[in-house]
Specification:
Largest interface: A-B, 28 and 30 residues
Number of helices of chain B: 0
Order of helices and strands of chain B: EEEEEEEEEEE
Mean pLDDT of chain A: 91
Number of strands of chain A: 12
Radius of gyration of chain A: 14 Å
Structural class of chain A: mainly beta
Shape of chain A: globular
Helix content of chain A: under 10%
Oligomer: heterodimer
Low-confidence stretches of chain A: none
Distance between the termini of chain A: 41 Å
Distance between the termini of chain B: 32 Å
Mean pLDDT of chain B: 89
Number of helices of chain A: 0
Number of strands of chain B: 11
Order of helices and strands of chain A: EEEEEEEEEEEE
């Protein structure tokens, strides 16, 4: 069965600090997809990134970067020079290819607080 | 309107009421989903519709009844709910291309439901 663990329930940092959100996953499939979503106080989940299991290249998008390591089953997310607007709950999610688009398995989320 | 919209954004109902949640997607997608987000718990997939056909029902109690009249609209009919059903109900959609590959899901802002 698939499982996603986000061990950090809440992280609080001061603005401009770098912060890394951890995500560890479990799956028996060799083909799977990993996602990160952001949920601001308004409630809507905002899609950030999708990565398939065959692409271990790290990705950078502005202040955001993702480190995918199959050897440790981790897909960590780093925000560089954090800003108050980054405050939100961040979810990591997994989908096994055999399930197609039928549902994501989410972690419990990490509540990130950026203090001014 | 763009993206995925949900109405109402907030709903308070008694246990004997009947109400409906509405979701509409303007992305031309073929799959739609209902998720439940309770405090301190991961997002839970409730129902999946592909091309208007229900393909997944994750052991959801019958007091929740989904309806998908077309690929753009999804409803969740609520009847004789319990206080523990109070949660944020999120709708999502995805392209659902053929071949079962995993598509990215895009979420609406959710309906905050309180059952008294």
């Amino acid at each position: 069965a698939q499982k996603v663990t986000q061990a950090q329930t809440e992280i609080s940092v001061v603005e401009k600090e770098d912060v890394t959100l951890d995500c560890v996953y479990e799956t028996r499939d060799t083909t799977y997809y990993l996602f990160w979503y952001k949920q601001p106080p308004s409630g809507e989940l905002v899609f950030l990134i999708r990565r398939n299991s065959f692409d271990e290249q790290n990705e950078i998008s502005g202040r955001y970067s993702w480190n995918f390591q199959k050897s440790t089953s981790s897909f960590n997310f780093t925000i560089t020079a954090s800003q108050v607007v980054d405050s939100a709950v961040y979810f990591c999610a997994l989908s096994e290819a055999g399930r197609g688009a039928d549902g994501l398995t989410f972690g419990k989320g990490t509540h990130l607080i950026i203090q001014p | 309107e763009t993206g995925v919209t949900q109405t109402p954004r907030h709903l308070v109902m008694g246990m004997t009421n009947k109400k409906s949640l509405k979701c509409e997607q303007h992305l031309g997608h073929n799959a739609m989903y209902w998720y439940k987000q309770s405090a301190k718990k991961p997002l839970e997939l409730m129902f999946v519709y592909n091309f208007k056909e229900q393909t997944e029902n994750n052991s959801v109690p019958s007091r929740f009844s989904p309806e998908c009249p077309n690929s753009s609209h999804l409803f969740l009919h609520l009847h004789t709910l319990q206080p523990e059903d109070s949660a944020l109900y999120l709708c999502a959609s995805s392209p659902r291309t053929s071949g079962g590959h995993t598509d990215t899901q895009y979420f609406g802002p959710g309906t905050r439901l309180t059952v008294l």
